[in-house]
Design a protein that fits this description.
Elements (H helix, E strand, L loop, with lengths): L6 H15 L11 E2 L2 E2 L19 E4 L2 E5 L4 E8 L4 E4 L16 E2 L6 E3 L3 E7 L1 H5 L9 H7 L20 E3 L9 E2 L6 E9 L11 E2 L1 E5 L3 H15 L3 E5 L4 E6 L3 E3 L12 E3 L7 H13 L1
Antiparallel strand pairs: 1-2, 3-4, 4-5, 5-6, 6-14, 7-11, 8-14, 9-10, 9-12, 12-13, 15-16, 16-17, 17-18
Helix pairs in contact: 1-5
């Protein structure tokens, strides 16, 4: 009978088996859709997905793509990749069918997003503030008259067809030093935002409500765009990996590659993140090397 292996060899063999059965890193799971929205670079659906510049702000929760800010989380209703714009639907924004008091709308000033092509309509304001406010564009007073024709104004505590001197069209809107549309500072109770009048500026039932944002790419995103195009063409999803947040193409099967999902070079280009253990031949080879030592 052969003598038992030395204790250090048995311990090493146990450690190899333990490492083989335990994932060393968590699997990055990225998707190319979130609900009905197609998700492409620079956006991602979770940690390690999309661009590291945008990842802190955009995520997919319960099949809803959202933008996270210091104020709250805003649902994203659409994205136009050719124009680098997205549309938000703030949960407390008023429309013709639903009006409510609103907290300030806000964005992180350091984020890659800026308001664009959005007409903010401040509602339920103090008349003397509106009269003397430099932010109100009186040439758009007809928008106030139009939205005030909606029966939902009753939920703001106003009568039907209230006077338009309690309304202010603020376009283009600028955020304050804290990145907020300061409703309380302007003595307004709520707001609406319109991205399209639907071809009928006097019929608010046909308006398209939301907040349009423009997003800007960083030098890093411009550098990885060719790689990302190749990755998406091969069925992968663009993401990033440690160390250094370098580009990674997240593929099916639980692995990442620095190229694309059609690459066959699994030794140099693949960064495995699968929870499956390595092949037994690899374990055996490592054991033999330990025993020789």
């Amino acid at each position: 009978m052969a003598p038992p292996p030395p204790l250090h060899t048995s311990t090493n063999y146990f450690m190899i088996l333990l490492l083989a059965s335990t994932p060393t890193t968590s699997t990055t799971v990225c998707h190319d859709t979130c609900g009905s929205i197609q998700v492409k670079y620079p956006f991602g659906t979770g940690p390690g997905c999309g661009s590291p510049l945008f990842n802190p702000y955009i995520t997919c929760t319960l099949n809803q793509l959202i933008l996270k800010t210091h104020k709250t989380a805003y649902p994203i209703t659409s994205i136009s990749y050719p124009t680098s714009t997205l549309i938000l639907a703030p949960p407390y924004m008023s429309t013709c069918t639903t009006m409510q008091t609103s907290p300030n709308f806000g964005l992180d000033l350091t984020s890659p997003f800026q308001i664009t092509s959005s007409t903010f309509i401040l509602l339920f304001c103090q008349p003397f503030i509106i009269k003397n406010s430099p932010i109100c564009d009186t040439s758009f007073d007809y928008l106030c008259a139009s939205i005030y024709s909606c029966p939902a104004v009753l939920s703001l505590g106003m009568p039907l067809f209230p006077p338009t001197n309690t309304c202010c069209v603020y376009s283009p809107a600028n955020l304050d030093g804290e990145g907020e549309l300061n409703l309380r500072g302007n003595d307004c109770g709520g707001y609406s935002s319109v991205v399209s009048l639907g071809g009928n500026p006097t019929d608010p039932t046909h308006w398209v409500y939301g907040v349009a944002l423009k997003y800007s790419h960083s030098a890093f995103d411009n550098f990885v765009t060719p790689k990302c195009t190749s990755c998406e063409s091969s069925g992968g999803v663009c993401g990033f990996a440690a160390p250094g947040n370098g580009f990674a193409c997240v593929c099916e099967g639980g692995f990442n590659t620095s190229l694309d999902c059609s690459s066959n070079d699994q030794n140099e280009d693949y960064l495995w993140e699968s929870i499956s253990p390595p092949p037994m031949s690899t374990i055996t080879k490592q054991v033999e090397e330990f025993e020789k030592a």
